[in-house]
Queue: 2 jobs
Job 1
Amino acid sequence: MPNLNENYLKLQENYLFSEIAHRVAAYTKQHPEKNVIRLGIGDVTRPLCQCAGEALLEGAKEMMSADTFKGYGPEQGYEDTRKAIVDYYKRSGVEINASAVFVSDGAKSDTGNITDLFAHDNVILIPTPVYPVYVDSNVMCGNKVEYIEGNADNDFLPMPDWDQHADIIYICSPNNPTGACYNKSQLKEWVDYARKNQAVILFDAAYEAFVSDPELPRSIYAVEGAKQCAIEFCSLSKTAGFTGTRCGYTIVPQELVFTASTGEEMSLNAMWNRRQCTKYNGTSYIVQKAAAAVFSEEGIRQCQENLEYYRENARVITDTLSDLGIRFYGGVHSPYVWFECPKDMDSWTFFDYLLHEIQVVGTPGAGFGENGKRYFRLTSFGTYENTVEAMKRFRNLLETNKKQKVRVLLIGKVFFLKKT
Ligand code: MLT
């Protein structure tokens, strides 16, 4: 009998979004007549833009002809795709070397797989709340994690504690789930802190395309010194609607060189290359062809039209929360809106309440860590019609509750006055 990786015993039974899917499936089985609106997982609803779709079809045609057919591609990605990514960065003023770019099937896999490059005795800082993949993948390989607190007091943008040592730091900006986005001087402080500690920042930029303020950094490499301390992960899932098409990329700068215990120099770029060549056979040609088209100027313009659609949905959500007097975060440089659960509920109770009362699915903040336990996330990736309908139901539910509460209070007061 094999000895198993018992670190899996330390995980929750289900991954967050699988748990949500289970609960929703159980509900719909019992209530097949109900129209359930899903604003939980951040899955897109707009189709691929014209540029990407046409490139996919063209790529498929090439694969159907002996002259242009392609077998195994380079594990790091095709030259054209890597160059298109480099050009995309260049247009926002950030210089990246093509040899630092590794095309993959998405940021989720890469943020999980990156643990392969590090030993298991590092001090790893992970914010709470944050995308659950970071914690789960470290737990799976037996790593110990320390949490950095995001909360209402720091607007969910925790800053370094200079008295604390770290070796690896996870940052997600714009943040999933809170939508909070670091400005340049805040990111600079993280970069300075990482360099002082000789630490590596694992920077998840999956939502960078949502940043509409030119003053806010969309890449950590917009900050001086970041190439000496940061790996950046990015994805086309949200930028270009590739949740089903699958493509992402990771930037591992050549500057990331550390000294091993043997005294030898180890390059993270060379290590990641070695890892990918061994365990990954490259992203499919047709998908990379579509990705290159996405990063053309016209491709990005078309993708931004889709993002504008989601921004309008986010406005529908935030307007409703504002009218109801519910404090929220995000929804501006992010597709996610994050808010405190009303009525003092914890987030799973609120999840069940919304599902059962109004058939709206969101994501309980507890799934993103301890500091999310009293918060809830709604995504703007639904259709406009569903978002409007969900917010109509949400408003009715919470307004009715408010009125009932006032009535109970008034009745209580009259009863008290009569008695005295
Ligand atoms: C989310 O809803 O947080 C994301 O869709 C998850 C992911 O990108 O894997």
Note: The chain has a mean pLDDT of 95.
Job 2
Amino acid sequence: MAKEMHEFQAETKQLLDLMVNSIYTNKEIFLRELISNASDAIDKVHFESLTNRELLEGDEDYEIYLVPDKDSHTLTISDNGIGMTKDEVIENIGTIAKSGTKAFLEKMKEAKEGGEVTDKDMIGQFGVGFYSAFMVAEKVTITTRKAGTKDAVRWESDGSGTFSIEPCEKEKRGTTITLDLKKEFYGDEAEEDFTETYRIERLVKKYSDYVRYPIKMDFVTEEKPKDKDGKVIEDAKPEKKVEVRTLNSMQPLWTKNKSDIKKEEYNEFYKNQFHEWEDPMEVFHTKAEGTVEYTALMYIPSKAPFNLYHTDFEPGMQLYSRHVFIMEKCKDLLPDYLRFIKGLVDSPDLSLNISRELLQQSRELKVIGKNLEKTVLKALEKMLDKDREKYEKFWAEFGKSLKIGIYNTIYMAGDAKEKLKDLVLFPSSKEEKLVTLKEYKERMPLSQKKIYYATGKDKTIIEALPQMELLREKGLEVLFCTDPVDEFAIEALHDYDGKEFQSIARGDLDLGDAESETAKKETEDIAKKNDDLIKDIKETLGDKVADVKVSQRLKTSAVCLVADEMGPSLSMEQTFADMDNPLFKAKRILELNPHHDLFGRLQKLHEAGKDSQDFKDYCDLLYTQALLIEGILPENPVDFANKVAKLMAK
Ligand code: ADP
């Protein structure tokens, strides 16, 4: 195999560009990123060696080795981990595998141009470990040999868009990364000198102290030799002495006493262990002794990862048994609605020697999972109660997870909705800030029987809905569902403490008061009198609508479209359609305001003849208007425009 040149994937190029020109000030963290990659690689080889000892080739002393070199202005990081094959190097280092990356990058770029986010935010949501090397290096060389194979490869790039790859020799398994440092980062004049052993030692202590494999470095000292009696020979030439030192303590943070751990330590550990760039929002450190003994360290990140709801997002906590790492992502520990939690569990009661599948289902793990779920939920309740501002920040990032959790109770056994119902927040017609269901219920007047909600893209759009008119007039509070998942969650909840939810755009809007009773009778009378008209409008619209009704909910608007009480709502239909699932159709009911001038006009046109073109056009226009109000485009916009034009010209 000769030397080959490759182009980075477009998205990778964009990220590299971001790194090379990064305004991210904390450039030193590149070392933490490369060390944690090395540590992961050792985890992997260790894990595989449990079933295939030969992989280790007799080299069982795991280590990460750092070599700062003042002469060549390089810093080298080596590990005897799993290493990579040529294909893996191309795949892992040249491309970003996460789906949705492109769309995300574009969105971020727009936000950046609008001044809403910085490079730091972008990097933060991504966690682009390896590429951070390009913040400090003008060239990066990787030599790597996969454990159990013979062919090593050398990868080289200056981060500008291409990389080369060629075969090479490598005696030890694993990966060696050499950074040719940019001139700001070596020598006495440098901003920061990463060829200085003491500087590297400090960085390792600061960022990587808990890495569970030794991080070693040579310390070179010059000493004059001693004679047989141990006395220094004064006129002899100094001799170089090389001493290998392990820089990190390797004591797992979670084994220390809570009171001895500083916040910064928790934060550094988090960033190191979980490849995060920003401090977490919340830390939970719990120990339990009882039927099952364990220590857990859990974090709520400060930002939701961009792919939290993509299928490629892998939730799960790390598992340890007596401080020995056993599994990277244990999925069944926490319920899916806590998928955003990062953390680890260390328990002597977990067995090292059973398969992953059996382990995930073990009784001990179930007990631990239940307890941890409780810990997190309790902490969230407390946060909501004591620090609303913080909770709202949490909600903005992860609220969707909890709502999906409630919705999923429809499919899955469990009582998630009971646990989560007091943690959900909604925008409301009564308050600027978000409200809880409890707050809503406490404010309900005695006569109000149901909790009202409305769906739409945002607050302004919902407030303008014709269906809001009556409720506003009566001063009734309406919860706003602005996220497609909101309505699904409400459906799943069914009621809150005995008060059922009622969409203002579905079924009959029964407000339950005396006034409404009178209005209801009045509407029924009008409907009876206009029986033929209603029937003929329905006939004209054909299968576009399931029904046409005289409306009780409209005050100033002429029409609105509502969905049947049963079955999906109009916005649910849209959501299903967006997910390429057009089978779920809402039963559309066109409601007409009998007090609007247009109703009189319809009556007149109808009297003139139900088969007249004008009557048919009016019916069609009314229906399309109602669609537009719901944010649904007409099937035939040209036809709609022509009909409006015809009418305007009259
Ligand atoms: P992340 O570590 O978040 O996956 P990186 O960009 O840091 O992202 O690394 C990309 C991938 O490259 C890793 O997932 C891993 O498969 C591979 N990799 C990086 N460094 C090493 C290493 N020292 N040894 C083996 N594989 C590595």
Note: The two ends are 79 Å apart (CA to CA).
